[in-house]
Design brief:
homodimer; about 150 residues; mainly alpha; DNA-binding; DNA-binding transcription factor activity (chains A, B); WH-like_DNA-bd_sf (chains A, B); MarR/SlyA-like (chains A, B); Transcriptional regulator, MarR family (chains A, B)
DNA sequence: TGATATCGTTGCACTCTACAACCCTCCTGG
DNA sequence: CCAGGAGGGTTGTAGAGTGCAACGATATCA
C-alpha cells in the first residue's frame, strides 16, 4: 500500500470505489477521538468553527450551519459555549439587528494557534515519508471529493 | 479544483498538509449524516461493525474495539442493539467461556447487502466524472494515510 | 490455590445532533 | 402605513454515541 499509482484497468474502478468508501469511513470514525487527543481544549466542531472564523475574518452562525451542513440550533449552542468560554465574541450587525457577526476573541486566537501547531506536528510526523508531489495530489483529490460530495448529496 | 496534479514546489507542502487536514475533517463531520441518508436502517457504526463481521467471518467485541479505537463499553452496547434487532448473533466460544464470537445473522446479511448497494450507487454517482486512474490513486492515498495514522497515534 | 489478566456488562455523565416551536427584526406589497 | 412573510437566532425536547469506572465471570500462571 506504499506506492502511489496503481495499474488502472477499467475492471478496477469498482475496487477503487470500495476502497475509497472503506478508508474514508474508517477515517471518519477516528476523527473525533484524534481531535480530542491533539487538542483537548477544543472539540472537533469547536476547532472547525474557530478556524472558519479566522479564515473568513468573522461570519454569521447561519453561514457556519450552511457550510458545515449543521442545524442552526447546533451551531447556536456551539457558539454559545465558545462565547461563554471566551473563545469568540458576537457583534450585532449595526445595519441589521437580526444578525450577529462572530469574531475570534483573544483566547480563541491563542487556542487556535496552539491547536494548529499540535495538528501540524501530528500531521507532519504522520506524513513525513510522503513525497511532496503525492501530498499535493492527495490534497487535490480530497478537495475534489468533498466538492463532488456537496454537489451530490 | 478539478485537475488532479498540482505543481509541487517544496514550499507547498505545508499548504498541502493544511488542506488535507481541513478536507478530512470536513468529510468526517458529514459522514454520519451521509450514512444516515444512504441507509437509515444502519448507523455508520452499525454498518461498520456488520461489514467487519462479514469481512472477518466473525470476530470478538474486543477486536472491534481495538480495530476502531472505541471503548469496549461502546462496542458492547452497539453489539447488544444489533443483536436485539436481529442483525447479528453471539456464539460463546466453547474453548473460552469469556469470549463471544459475533456472526452476521440473516437480517444482518440482507441489510448489509442493501446498504452496500445504496453506498455503491451514491459513490458511483458522486465519482462518475473521475478518471479511473485518479480513483485508483486516491484509493491508494487513503489506504496509505490511514495506515500512517494508525502507526502514529 | 491464590493472584493476576482478559472479556464483557452496566451505571453514570457528557457531548453532539436534529426537529419543532418560538421570538425578534427586516422587508415588501397592498 | 402596516400586515404578513421571510430570515436569523434561541430554547425545549429527545435520542444517539461515547468514555470512564466499577463490577462479575472466566481463564491462566506461579
Amino acid at each position: 500500500m506504499a506506492s502511489a499509482a496503481s495499474p488502472t484497468r477499467p475492471a478496477e474502478s469498482a475496487t477503487s470505489l470500495e476502497t475509497i468508501q472503506r478508508e474514508l469511513t474508517a477515517f471518519a470514525r477516528r476523527a473525533r477521538a484524534t481531535a480530542a487527543r491533539m487538542h483537548p481544549e477544543l472539540s472537533l466542531v469547536a476547532y472547525t468553527i474557530l478556524a472558519h472564523l479566522e479564515e473568513q475574518q468573522g461570519c454569521r452562525a447561519t453561514d457556519l450551519a450552511a457550510h458545515y451542513l449543521l442545524d442552526k440550533s447546533t451551531v447556536s449552542r456551539q457558539v454559545a459555549a465558545l462565547e461563554r468560554d471566551g473563545f469568540l465574541e458576537r457583534r450585532t450587525d449595526p445595519t441589521d439587528h437580526r444578525v450577529q457577526v462572530l469574531h475570534l476573541a483573544p483566547r480563541g486566537v491563542r487556542s487556535l494557534a496552539a491547536a494548529r501547531v499540535r495538528r501540524q506536528e501530528t500531521f507532519k510526523e504522520r506524513l513525513a515519508a510522503w513525497d511532496p508531489a503525492d501530498l499535493a495530489r492527495f490534497a487535490d483529490y480530497l478537495v475534489r471529493y468533498n466538492a463532488d460530495a456537496a454537489a451530490h448529496p
